[in-house]
Amino acid sequence: MQGILQPSVEYLNIEAINRDLQHKLDERDAAVIYVWFENYGLTRKEVALKLNLSEDGLKARISKIYTKLEVRNREEAVKKIMEILRVI
Question: How many other C-beta atoms lie within 10 A of the C-beta of residue 81?
Fold first, then answer.
């Protein structure tokens, strides 16, 4: 999602996001999403290091987040979060 949507943590509000979701994001989901927004260009490996997770653990967490958000990839996840928060 280069150039189109650049997420910003100033808009990130997990409680507001959870109001619109059937399957609520938990505290660890929120941490992953926060790192995505704050450090958007990082690779999965770099995100895992920042969160003190294994790459496999992060991959599993991301898969759960995608399911909860009903999206297929990071770009769709960021877009959905920004839409829920009415940032875009």
Answer: 27
